Amino acid sequence: MGQAALAAAPAAPVSLPAFRDPTREAFMSWLQIRLAITPDQAEALEDQLLQLGAVSVTFMDAEDQPIFEPDLNTTPLWSHTHLLALFEADTDPDALLAHLQLLRGGDLPEHQTEVIEDQDWERSWMDNFQPMRFGHRLWIVPSWHAAPEPDAVNLLLDPGLAFGTGTHPTTALCLEWLDAQTLDDRSLLDFGCGSGILAIAGLLLGARQAVGTDIDPQALEASRDNAERNGIAPERFTLYLPEQLPQEPADVVVANILAGPLVSLAPQITALVKPGGRLALSGILAEQADEVRAAYSGAFDLDPTADKDGWVRISGVRRS
């Protein structure tokens, strides 16, 4: 069907037939269509692709753009986004694109189709996560791997959808910093603990006890489970929602959250660090570093800013 005929055709009905081609080989698992879109196109295209039988629709950043702290209950998209829709393998791509163009009532965004071969998706996902070393002593080891250095400090943690597993630069910056500290017999506070990875790392590296706090009750549960998996006694790692957090200063405080809260909570976080105690802040984009440093420079002697892949860590010692 030519483009002129498409433009003149009547609107497609709500229920459309599946676009099957029985000659397509059965071993091909999925047909994927990728469209380069702008945020204002996302909702309509998602609805149209689902209407055409997509089994999933996802969005990806097309240009590695950061999304700054979004408003509550919003799901912002990047200015240049890739929409990926998966269809069953025997879907005819030409018929699919023709019907999508009918629904759109005009030309499609830049697009391409490809076949995603069948594979053991769980094994493929697991193979992407290998043990990772941070600093000189500390390893993060998924449960399905043996520890590369059994005598090192090995933190057992499986990757998940949220809360922090060491793969993000901000978490890596904090883990590397903790590995470089002398933590023996120190108290530690993990402000925004997520999975508990930083507090548990600190305890395994020698801290006497740790406190974790997070606004998400599920994060506290994840922290508790991960501590148990790593043999951390409950009395060594106590967990609180922010409104329940005891206001007792710690020798070492880590806060891997976001730049906005780090600035607005600077007085509270400062008060939680003992005089002479150490502080590490992350979750900060490079262009936000000056604002965060300014919020803490009055109470701390700050180290040079450390950076990794566009993210930074700010650390220092609280003045007596």
Automatic annotation (TrEMBL):
It catalyses: L-lysyl-[protein] + 3 S-adenosyl-L-methionine = N(6),N(6),N(6)-trimethyl-L-lysyl-[protein] + 3 S-adenosyl-L-homocysteine + 3 H(+). It is found in: Cytoplasm. One of its GO terms (biological process) is methylation. One of its GO terms (cellular component) is ribosome. Its main location: cytoplasm. S-adenosyl-L-methionine binds at T171, G192, D214, N256. Pfam families: PrmA. GO terms for molecular function: protein-lysine N-methyltransferase activity. Methylates ribosomal protein L11. HAMAP family: Methyltr_PrmA (MF_00735). This is Ribosomal protein L11 methyltransferase. It comes from Stutzerimonas stutzeri (strain A1501).
